[in-house]
Write a structure and sequence with these properties.
heterodimer; A: alpha/beta; globular; B: alpha/beta; eight-stranded mixed sheet; seven-stranded antiparallel sheet; 35 helices
Chain lengths: ~350, ~1050
């Protein structure tokens, strides 16, 4: 069966359908990771987006539950050069095709993903519509032009927890503000013996403090940080009271809470090979990225925060630290999964901060 | 960290001659390193014994020493040059071992030379099995159960404890020399003994065997600030048990989930940090296909074959970056030349599949043991890039030039099921074709996985190819070939030639069918970043996809065809020529486009030509590029036979061949036409004719009289060529070596005993420059490539030289040569006969260019493009002889090739070469011999077994050895003859006379040199063969040509005391 991806600039990519049938719209973005497609598919931060994998062979090792980053897939569509029908790996439980069917995600295979990527690189991320069957591409292009922008969509509520739950641990109690957290953030905290209390994004500062945590982690999540003003407000009340670690969307929210601004990147960073320099130690780490927005360095002038990490490729801000308070955040993914585990030290730093407060 | 200031002058050690396990990759690495060091304003001193390399060009280093890579010589260069630093990690295992010896000997300290890059301790930790084991245990990285042994007893004890199979691996060796997997106690013992013998520190590792596990490699970089990255990982399609150098390898890994990928990546970084490497290293893992369990197999603390592959696969210049790191720069300070914007501190993202396929020499060595194991046997490799796995695989197969254009091995269908499964299990060079055959027969992937342990993912991919084949078959039957189907086939990498076999159309028809239906390839860029950033690399590959990224320029441009994989008979020399041709074109203001598929080489470095196309060197792929680029023409004379063979098909497709015309090439290569030409020119050639039947061959032989040289007609070049002395041998040859048929006739020539001479000439059509004449030490009958060549000739009369020049001029003119021509002559009873003419650049061009200082390829290229010799300041005729003497000696890889007969003959067997230079001939010869590894003790025992027909000639030579103080052992016949000649000699038993016989003596390490001349027949069970093999396997020099031995005796006589040869850098040869 045929499937078509239509972009708002009128470009049309026709290939083979796999996964679910139907039609869906979203922001079209590309990911350059050569492994880790299941982590991508199940990373809630991709909610609202149609993901293009630049590596041409996808699904080679199939799908295995234990590698999921959330209970389900939130991507709006999945585009690959070639979908593997005969995967091979000792752990695999199903093919990517059957997984996408279950998750009701439309797949498109057999198109020139490099061509599409080059287009996104030069025009920037675009809205697109993915449809299966004999749909009229002109109609799809029209829909792409008229579908909502990413900004303004209420995406966090779709992916975040709606009630508080606790994962036991013998060490520090950490409140994780869930904007669509990847499971590996929780795993990384648990490996460090933390008791993790996961709370909805709408949880008030009072409620959070009443849980008397030793630290607060702001998770990753989908969409534009300005679309979660309530969380920004909550955070403003919390800063200064507890050590805070922000990750990805959490980092942007922290930035906004501290008075900085965020802006949308042309086509974002999505991959597992981005060099990030820790400006404090001078060391460079290869890190896992998934962000379309960034904290504006200009807007940090005169604030009590400074740039702690920077991307070597394009110089964008990848981490900020508060000058006086145990409050810091990174734009990339120290929890990896997918991608290099080089940056887990960020969690250790967070534990030190909590220890420091203890004294 | 900025560039370190204390270092102004750096010495780089090359890797020496090409041998199996150490090929062109180190010329590529060394060249990149020298360049990047000079970029940083450093003075570079280079030492390498291999003249056929770009790195030994005068423009690569400030001072280039072509001297033996031995402790003695390197130390003397160091004392002479007094460099501040030494960079040892770019010369492969040779360079590394030398660095260790230099450090131990204390020279470095005395001369205050600092080791740059990876510290000595790190090298030791990685190289010494014991130290490595301890290190891994200390950072709890798992390694297989093992013991280090120096005696057989300890080995046996371990075996008793762990049980078989076990793997034996000597310390400090290349390509696993002397190692292997032992399944029975008996072959365990022999392998251990051999292993200990081959280890320079007499150590071997006996290790638990994890055959069948996934073999995964990571290429890792680390700088002085402890920043680490992995450039890429690679998955061996052939699992553990087959040397990575002999494995079909894919990059990136295909069957690892992110969890497994990161598990091993993290381990790699941990290891490179623990070792403290500063530069690049290669980490090899064995991964259990059924768990997260893995073992670290080895670490190469240096650039390697794999790092060259990784560089070409990703576009990340590992050697260049490693050199800069060695000079103190950190990864985040080094620019990524591919994007020009980003830094070397990132990990490449691929959006294509890369496949490496080894090239084995078994087409040359019919008798050779083809079974693959832990010891590398491939002489070279090809790489292919595509957007599908199938497409990359089929491209690679076509690039091999083994006369196969698909996963289809003619004759495989005749194998019985048992035989087929047997060969699949034991794994030889044809395994992948047999996998395809098995699938064709309906054997399931699951079954094949059981037998071969090849991952189901790959087996299923191969199956896809066969399924499509069937689809096409049935479509052909139903007569409804539709464009969609052909398009699918092209996406999967099917060649036009194979599609023509399937469809019954001619290849040309298939091509035009594609054109009509718009099924044409697109070209995409290798950019290190999967299109995330705009890249400036002019590095492309073809694929059947939607968007084409190539933007041809409007400049004047020319295409140069490369020479493909390194194989015996066509080695690195031809890459040297291609590169120089490209450089000459750029000098002349042309845009140079190169096409090649060998990842080891300088020619496929993306900044060598203006544009690099990484493609199979077959008509279809080359034409596709030509369609796109539309250059003025194609230069075919520098890419060896590979490129020459493409001249005809390209011209037929309407492409302009620059230089000597296709017509004239054919006149030189077609036997009949060439014979007529010689008659016209009145130039003698050995009597002989073409035989179309056995009877005819016998008839010709009786006419011209034995001995005769027999070989198949020219398509196959020097293959399966033999000298036969009587009818029986002739008939035997006809029965075994070749099938003579009307379409595949056999050439029968009179064997002419005499000196072989070789000439390379450069012609502009009118004037012809002869840089020099080379004289071979070994008589004709030993392949020119296996002979020791001397320039300028030492024994030729003026008349002879004049005649050689005269004939050469005549031939070059008659063939309207534009560019290079190579001619081999034999001087027989004061007459000169032409043996063959190669209307192209030859093996000797780099050697001759270096010793004469004439930039032969550069000139030839300019002549091809229309300049004249006069304009370039050269005149016609023989160039004045240099006052330096250059001796080129062949180097062999017999230790790696079991069951191969090492005796020299008309078939080429050497894999590489070295050069010795001096004002004094004997010294030059001595240097060449030392460089080539003929380093036998100056006193000791010589074992002689001489064929009857050689006994008379051998006497004085052996006498000479005796006079030099060697003790002589000989087999009965030889001993008798020697006694008669009044020599003191000890008779020893032949093998069939029972122990303790000759081979026992060799095993017992009682022999320092074996002299053995060939008796009739080729049967491996014969004594002579066994003696020669034993010598090779136990590392005892074995010489089979009396000429070589005579030369050595003279050298030894001369050079006993005298040791202070002067060492002159290339830059001063002509001064
Ligand atoms: N423990 C083992 N079990 C099975 N195969 C092995 C083992 N160790 C090595 N090998 C095989 O032998 C090959 C050569 O071993 P390696 O240590 O890499 O030697 P080299 O220095 O020649 O590369 C490897 O590529 C692998 O296929
Ligand atoms: N008629 C002959 N007499 C003596 N030696 C010969 C004769 N023909 C060939 N040879 C020997 O065989 C070698 C290979 O023959 P050649 O024609 O050069 O084949 P190739 O194409 O492999 O170079 C020569 O270098 C020479 O030593
Ligand atoms: Mg190895
Ligand atoms: Mg020849």
């Amino acid at each position: 069966m045929q499937a078509i991806l239509a972009l708002e600039d009128g470009a049309v990519f026709t290939g083979e359908a796999f996964g679910a049938k139907g039609e869906n719209w979203g922001e079209v973005v590309f990911n350059t990771g050569m492994t880790g497609y299941q982590e991508v598919l199940t990373d809630p931060s991709y909610c609202g987006q149609i993901v293009v994998m630049t590596y041409p062979l996808i699904g080679n090792y199939g799908i295995m539950k234990e590698d999921f980053e959330s209970k389900k897939s939130y991507v709006r569509g999945f585009v690959v050069r070639e979908e593997c029908r005969q995967p091979s790996n000792w752990r695999l439980s199903e093919t990517i095709d059957s997984f996408l069917k279950k998750e009701n995600v439309i797949g498109l295979a057999g198109i020139d993903t490099r061509s599409l990527t080059r287009r996104l690189r030069s025009h920037g991320t675009m809205r697109g519509v993915l449809g299966t069957g004999n749909t009229d591409s002109r109609v799809l292009v029209e829909r792409a032009k008229n579908c909502p922008q990413l900004t303004g969509q209420e995406l966090v509520p779709i992916v975040a927890t709606t009630e508080i739950y606790t994962l036991p641990g013998t060490g520090y109690r950490v409140v994780l503000m869930d904007f669509g957290a990847k499971l590996n953030i929780i795993r990384c905290l648990q490996e460090r013996n933390c008791e993790v209390v996961v709370v909805p994004p709408t949880t008030t500062a009072g409620e959070i403090l009443s849980l008397n945590p030793q630290g607060i982690v702001l998770s990753n999540g989908p969409g534009d940080p300005t679309d979660v003003p309530y969380a920004i407000k909550t955070l403003q009340e919390l800063i200064g009271k507890k050590p805070v670690l922000g990750i990805c969307l959490g980092h942007q929210i922290l930035g906004l809470a501290l008075g900085a601004r965020t802006y949308k990147l042309k086509f974002g960073h999505r991959g597992a090979n981005h060099p990030v320099k820790d400006l404090v130690t001078g060391r460079v780490y290869i890190s896992s990225h998934n962000h379309g927005f960034s904290v504006d360095e200009e807007s940090m002038k005169g604030l009590d925060i400074y740039v702690s990490h920077r991307n070597l490729n394009d110089g964008t801000v990848e981490g900020i630290k508060h000058k006086f308070l145990p409050v810091f955040s990174v734009q990339y993914h120290p929890e990896a999964s997918p991608g290099p585990m080089d940056s887990e030290y960020i969690f250790d730093e967070f534990l030190e901060k909590m220890a420091g407060e203890g004294r | 960290m900025p560039l370190r200031k204390d270092i102004k002058k750096v010495m780089v050690i090359g890797s020496g001659p090409i041998i199996i396990g150490q090929a062109a990759e180190f010329d590529y690495a060394g060249t990149q390193a020298c360049r990047s060091l000079r970029e940083e304003g450093l003075e570079v001193v280079l030492i390498n014994s291999n003249p056929a390399t770009i790195m030994t060009d005068t423009n690569m280093a400030d001072r280039v020493y072509i001297e033996p890579l031995t402790l003695e010589f390197v130390s003397r260069v160091i004392r002479q040059e007094k460099p501040d630093g030494l960079l040892p990690t770019l010369g492969g295992q040779v360079g590394l071992n030398l660095a260790l010896q230099l450090a131990q000997s204390g020279v470095l300290e005395e001369e205050g030379v600092v080791l740059l890059g990876t510290p000595l301790e790190a090298i030791k930790r990685a190289e010494d099995r014991e130290a490595f084991k301890e290190m891994m245990q200390s950072i709890d990285e798992p390694i297989p159960e093992s013991v280090i042994v120096s005696t057989l007893e300890d080995a046996e004890a371990f075996a008793a404890e762990i049980g078989l199979p076990l793997i034996v691996r000597p310390a400090y060796t290349l390509g696993g020399t002397g190692g292997g997997i032992a399944y029975s106690m008996e072959d365990f013992r022999t392998t251990v003994i051999r292993g200990l013998k081959h280890s320079i520190i007499n150590q071997a590792l006996i290790e638990q065997c994890v055959v069948g596990w996934k073999e995964i490699e990571y290429e890792v970089m680390r700088d002085g600030a402890n920043n680490c990255i992995t450039v890429c990982n690679m998955e061996n399609i052939d699992p553990m048990g087959i040397h990575t150098g002999d494995s079909i390898v894919v990059a990136p890994s295909q069957t690892l989930s992110d969890k497994e990928y990161q598990l091993l990546r993290t381990a790699s970084l941990k290891i490179i940090r623990a070792l403290g490497i500063e530069g690049g290293c290669n980490v090899q893992f064995a991964l259990d296909p059924n768990s997260f369990h893995y073992y670290v197999i080895e670490v190469n603390p240096r650039v390697s074959r794999s790092s060259a592959l990784a560089s070409k696969a990703t576009g990340y210049p590992i050697a260049k970056v490693a050199a800069k790191i060695a000079m103190g720069l950190t990864l985040d300070e080094i620019e990524n030349t591919v994007t020009g914007k980003t830094y070397a501190c990132f990990e490449p993202a691929l959006d294509y599949v890369v496949l490496k396929y080894p090239r084995w020499p078994f087409d040359k060595f019919a008798q050779g043991d083809r079974v693959l194991g832990t010891q590398m046997k491939a002489t070279g490799e090809v790489m292919a890039i595509n957007r599908t796995f199938e497409g990359a695989l089929l491209k690679a197969v076509r690039s091999l030039e083994i006369g196969i254009d698909h996963l289809f091995l003619p004759g495989a269908e005749e194998l019985s099921r048992e035989k087929l499964e047997e060969r699949l299990r034991r794994a030889d060079d044809e395994r992948l074709f047999l996998v395809a055959e098995a699938l064709r027969r309906g054997i399931t992937c699951e079954r094949l996985h059981e037998i071969t342990k090849i991952d189901l993912f790959f087996l299923n991919k191969i199956r896809n190819i066969l399924l499509l084949e069937e689809k096409i078959h049935s479509a052909v039957e139903k007569e409804d070939i539709i464009p969609e189907l052909i398009d699918k086939a092209k996406k999967m990498g099917f060649s036009d030639t194979y599609l023509s076999k399937l469809t019954g159309m001619s290849a040309v028809e298939v091509r035009s069918y594609r054109m009509e239906n718009g099924i044409i390839p697109t070209f995409k860029m290798v950019d290190t970043c999967a299109a995330e950033f705009e890249a400036v690399t002019p590095y492309y590959y073809s694929t059947y996809d939607q968007e084409d990224e190539v933007k041809p320029t409007s400049r004047r441009k020319v295409m140069v065809l490369g020479s493909g994989p390194i194989r015996i008979g066509q080695g690195i020399e031809f890459d040297y020529c291609s590169v120089h041709s490209v450089w000459a074109l750029r000098e002349e203001g042309f845009e140079a486009i190169i096409v090649n598929n060998n990842p080891e080489t300088v020619s496929t470095d993306f900044d060598t030509a203006d544009r690099l196309y990484f493609e199979p060197l077959v008509a279809e792929n080359v034409l596709n590029i030509l369609d796109r680029e539309r250059p003025e023409g194609v230069i075919v004379q520098f890419g060896g036979q590979t490129a020459i063979n493409l001249a005809k098909p390209l011209e037929e497709a309407g492409i302009k061949i620059l230089g000597t015309s296709v017509e004239d090439i054919d006149r030189a290569e077609d036997r009949e036409r060439f014979d007529r030409l010689l008659i016209e020119l009145g130039i003698p050639k050995p009597p002989g004719r073409t035989a179309f039947s056995v009877e005819e061959a016998v008839k010709i032989a009786s006419e011209i009289d034995f001995p005769v040289v027999v070989r198949p007609s020219y398509v196959l070049g020097g293959r399966a060529m033999e000298i036969v002395y009587n009818n029986d041998e002739l008939l035997n040859y006809m029965a075994t070596a070749v099938k003579v048929t009307p379409e595949y006739p056999v050439l029968v020539d009179k064997y002419l005993f005499g000196n072989e001479l070789e000439v390379d000439a450069i012609s502009d059509g009118a004037d012809i420059l002869i840089p020099g004449i080379m004289e071979h030490i070994e008589r004709a009958g030993v392949h020119s490539g296996d002979s020791i060549a001397v320039y300028p000739p030492q024994s030729l009369s003026r008349e002879t030289k004049e005649l050689v020049v005269e004939y050469t001029l005549r031939l070059a003119r008659a063939l309207n040569v534009k560019g290079l021509i190579n001619i081999q002559y034999v001087l027989h009873e004061d007459r000169i006969y032409v043996l063959e003419v190669n209307p192209r650049s030859s093996r000797t061009v780099p050697y001759l260019s270096k010793i004469t200082g004439i930039p032969m390829v550069n000139l030839a290229t300019k002549l091809v493009m229309g300049k004249t010799l006069k304009e370039l300041g050269y005149s016609s005729g023989l160039y004045p002889e240099s006052n330096f003497i250059g001796v080129k000696a062949p180097v062999f890889s017999f230790a790696k090739l079991l069951q191969v007969d090492i005796s020299l003959g008309p078939e080429m067997k050497s894999t590489g070469e070295v050069m010795g230079v001096d004002k004094d001939f004997k010294v030059a010869l001595y240097k060449a011999m030392v460089a080539a590894g003929y380093m036998f003790t100056k006193t000791g025992t010589v074992l002689a077994t001489i064929a009857d027909r050689d006994k008379k000639e051998a006497m004085p030579i052996i006498k000479g050895l005796a006079e030099l103080g060697y003790k002589i052992f000989a087999t009965s016949g030889t001993a008798a003859a020697l006694k008669e000649a009044g020599l003191e000699v000890e008779a020893v038993k032949k093998v069939h006379e029972g122990s303790s016989h000759i081979v026992d003596l060799i095993r017992a390490n009682k022999i320092n040199l074996v002299i053995n001349t060939l008796t009739r027949g080729k049967a491996p069970e014969r004594d002579g063969f066994q003696i020669r093999r034993a010598a090779v396997e136990y590392g005892v020099p074995c010489l089979t040509s009396l000429d070589t031995i005579r030369a050595i005796v003279n050298v030894l006589a001369e050079n006993r005391e005298k040791e202070d040869y002067n060492l002159i850098p290339l830059q001063e040869y002509l001064g």
